[in-house]
Every structure is written in structure tokens, then in C-alpha cells.
Recover the amino acids of this structure.
């Protein structure tokens, strides 16, 4: 597997904006949220299991997942959240690893809001955290997502604390300021990651050459 950067940040931190900026530099982004969303596509075994457990309430008339209903269900009932995690996490990890393996950029980004909580850091060579205060998270999420203040608090409690994320960070982007400060921060880090990835590739190639030499003797 190539050199992997783990990218994370709490809700409202601007993680997606940052990952989009890396993508503009030609870097493949494997988004765990996108993969998780498609795990529940119509016709898949995950959605079938949800329908069997909860009945028609969990589905829209089209047969697709009623995401709003399920979100409220798992936030209100921790046991149901655990059941859903046990169902989906193995499927999501399998697809994440396949996507990382298939990436064809100089390095690859694994973007996941729950990178720390779900121990996805073990697949990463380095971790970048997009950091903002919890108050900024609250304000941005309320403005962006049209959800209640109570639901925002539930989401915050379900994620790692700011301190836990920062403890896992090798690099940090501060996104409290104006959006136009982000491109320069990303560009500087991108150049650094290109160097790390090249060094890792050189080490791998040297080891492979050494093994081949031993086999040829």
C-alpha cells in the first residue's frame, strides 16, 4: 500500500474543504463518509438488515434508507447505534482498504471524521487534524445543517473530543480564520507529504532490490 495521510476533524471543522484542496493538487481522497453512505445503497445487504430490524419506518417509499429517521434512532438509543456499527464497520473497512490500495496518486488521503474513534489511524503513515474550537463547530453546524442545538450536542458527544483528536495529530490546520488562509496551509503540507511519500517509496524499493539480490544468489 502507498503512503497514507489520515485526515480528520470534528463536525463543522472544514475537513471536506481541506480534502478538496488536496484533491486540486492531484491527490486521491478516499472519503470514509462517502463509502459509509453507499454501504446503505438500495439492494445491499446492509440496508436489507436495517429493514429487517426496524421495518418500514426505516425506509422511504422508494425503498431507500430514511437517513433522518435512522440518525435520530441511533442518537436516542446507544444500543441501536452499537448494532448499526457492528453491521456496517466491517463492510466499510473492507471498501476503504480496497480504495486505498487502488489509489494512483503520489500519496493517498483517508478522510474520516471518526478516524481516531474507529482506530483507522492504524492504516495511516501520518495524521492531519483540521482544528477549530467547539463553539465554532456548534455555530457552523447550526448554520449549515439546519439541525437543532440538541442534535449538534449529541453529535459532538459522539465524536472524539478536540483534545483526543489533537493528541493523535502529527500535523494541524487551524481553520478558525478566513477560508482564504487554507490554500497556503494545504500547499505547504502537500509539498512535505510528497517528500515523505518519496522517501517511503525509496525505502521500499531498496528493500525489494535487496531481497531480489538475495534470491538471485
Amino acid at each position: 500500500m502507498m503512503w497514507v495521510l489520515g485526515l480528520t476533524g470534528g463536525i463543522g471543522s472544514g475537513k471536506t474543504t481541506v480534502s478538496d484542496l488536496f484533491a486540486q493538487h492531484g491527490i486521491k481522497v478516499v472519503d470514509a463518509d462517502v463509502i459509509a453512505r453507499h454501504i446503505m445503497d438500495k439492494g445491499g445487504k446492509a440496508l436489507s438488515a436495517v429493514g429487517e430490524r426496524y421495518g418500514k419506518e426505516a425506509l422511504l417509499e422508494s425503498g431507500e434508507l430514511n437517513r433522518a429517521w435512522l440518525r435520530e434512532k441511533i442518537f436516542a438509543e446507544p444500543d441501536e447505534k452499537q448494532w448499526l456499527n457492528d453491521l456496517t464497520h466491517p463492510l466499510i473497512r473492507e471498501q476503504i482498504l480496497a480504495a486505498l490500495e487502488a489509489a494512483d496518486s503520489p500519496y493517498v488521503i483517508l478522510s474520516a471524521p471518526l478516524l481516531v474513534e474507529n482506530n483507522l489511524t492504524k492504516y495511516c503513515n501520518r495524521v492531519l487534524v483540521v482544528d477549530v474550537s467547539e463553539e465554532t463547530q456548534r455555530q457552523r453546524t447550526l448554520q449549515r445543517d439546519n439541525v437543532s442545538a440538541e442534535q449538534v450536542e449529541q453529535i459532538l458527544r459522539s465524536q472524539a473530543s478536540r483534545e483526543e483528536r489533537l493528541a493523535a495529530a502529527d500535523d494541524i490546520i487551524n481553520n478558525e480564520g478566513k477560508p482564504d488562509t487554507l490554500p497556503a496551509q494545504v500547499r505547504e503540507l502537500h509539498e512535505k507529504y510528497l517528500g515523505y511519500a518519496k522517501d517511503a517509496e525509496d525505502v521500499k524499493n531498496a528493500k525489494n532490490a535487496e531481497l531480489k539480490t538475495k534470491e538471485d544468489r
